[in-house]
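Q: Given only this backbone (274 positions), what sequence would you predict?
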């Protein structure tokens, strides 16, 4: 399946909801009040910091000297603002497929309220974050197998060998990594638990089909990725630029599948069946 030559995904800058969530995670849920708990997720604005992050990310993207053939933005307010503040010379098309993961009934709820009102669901989230879905919401696996595959099929049909830019959301980017980089469930869980793998506000995931070490080696598929995001160093804004990582489709023998299966213990003692 021939894919775009370069695919950039950008998470939105810091939003007002991010501020509320961070405070609640630190033990202060006071920003969740009668007014804020009725705000639809699509309506949250960027903070001043979020605007600055978008400008820094946009300047770095412009420095890559890539002319984008297509630029899409999620229909949410915080992604619209981020796309505008990137300051790039593109024409944006809105796309609902790349919207935020649906958080269902807990979308406007503090961490503390969620744990209290949905204790069983909260326990499931901790035990199986890939397949866990909030009440009336989506799991990462749902987003990956439905919406991410939808947009990748569109890009295959309409933008093979093009350069494409998407401004989207952190959870959609996790789901995209799961599909494009062909992670196993175990790889997802390992990375999701690793703080160094965090998708910061205005993180840029750059995928390419051109070997970064050999520009003459161009594949049909996207086979390399790097993560970059805005940081402040000594009071000055700059872009942290990660190393390129190669990835490819994985295939296993029956014996290798058994080794992977045996990494999990039996949960029932004794012998059952005959």
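A: Predicted residues:
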């Amino acid at each position: 399946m021939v894919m775009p030559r370069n695919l950039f995904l950008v998470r939105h800058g810091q939003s007002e909801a991010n501020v509320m969530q961070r405070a609640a995670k630190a033990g202060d849920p006071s920003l969740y009040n009668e007014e804020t708990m009725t705000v639809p997720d699509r309506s949250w604005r960027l903070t001043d910091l979020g605007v600055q992050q978008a400008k820094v990310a946009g300047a770095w993207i412009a420095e890559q000297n890539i002319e984008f053939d297509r630029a899409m933005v999620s229909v949410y307010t915080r992604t619209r603002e981020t796309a505008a503040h990137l300051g790039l010379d593109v024409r944006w098309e809105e796309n609902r497929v790349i919207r935020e993961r649906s958080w269902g009934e807990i979308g406007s709820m503090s961490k503390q309220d969620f744990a209290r009102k949905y204790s069983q669901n909260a326990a499931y989230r901790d035990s199986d974050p890939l397949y866990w879905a909030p009440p009336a919401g989506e799991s990462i696996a749902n987003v990956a197998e439905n919406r991410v595959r939808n947009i990748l099929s569109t890009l295959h049909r309409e933008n093979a060998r093009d350069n494409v830019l998407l401004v989207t959301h952190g959870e959609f980017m996790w789901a995209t990594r799961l599909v494009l980089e062909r992670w196993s469930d175990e790889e997802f869980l390992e990375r999701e638990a690793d703080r160094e793998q965090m998708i910061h506000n205005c993180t840029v995931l750059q995928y390419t089909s051109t070997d970064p070490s050999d520009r003459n080696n161009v594949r049909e598929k996207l086979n390399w990725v790097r993560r970059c995001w805005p940081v402040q160093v000594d009071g000055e804004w700059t872009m942290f630029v990660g190393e390129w990582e190669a990835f490819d489709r994985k295939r296993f023998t029956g014996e290798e599948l058994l080794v992977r299966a045996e990494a999990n213990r039996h949960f029932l003692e004794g012998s059952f069946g005959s």
